[in-house]
Write a structure and sequence with these properties.
Blueprint lengths: L5 E9 L15 E12 L3 H8 L7 E6 L8 E4 L2 E9 L7 E8 L8
Antiparallel strand pairs: 1-2, 1-4, 2-3, 3-6, 4-5, 5-6
Length: 111
């Protein structure tokens, strides 16, 4: 079965204690990163080409433990940032969630 030997960095944005700076401008949100174990999977031929039709190509897929995943929409894998295009909970598997990853430039384009 799965070895859980790969690592993925889950990235979330956290609002600081002060919402605005001394000049009244909003403070930027700070990134909070967590490294967790995962299983990197191959993207199937069919899924890859179907995703091209939407303009958001599924580049990578990986499984993470449900206990580790807190809904982050940005991840870093093998030195590259990705946007979590969709999640899937395999039937009969209570422990994992599959993340389908696309280029980070798709993050602000919506679903």
């Amino acid at each position: 079965m799965a070895a859980w030997a790969d690592e993925i960095t889950l990235i979330s944005l956290k609002e600081g204690e002060e919402r605005v700076n001394d000049n009244g401008f909003p403070n930027e949100e700070a990134e909070e990163k967590r490294v967790v174990f995962c299983n990197v999977k191959t993207t199937g031929y069919n899924e890859y080409f179907k995703s091209q039709q939407t303009g958001k190509v599924v580049e990578k897929k990986c499984d993470v433990h449900k206990a580790d995943y807190e809904g982050e929409d940005t991840v870093e894998l093998e030195g590259k940032r990705y946007y979590v295009l969709k999640t899937y909970e395999p039937e009969g598997d209570e422990d994992t969630v599959e993340l389908s990853l696309t280029d980070i430039r798709n993050k602000d384009k919506g679903a």
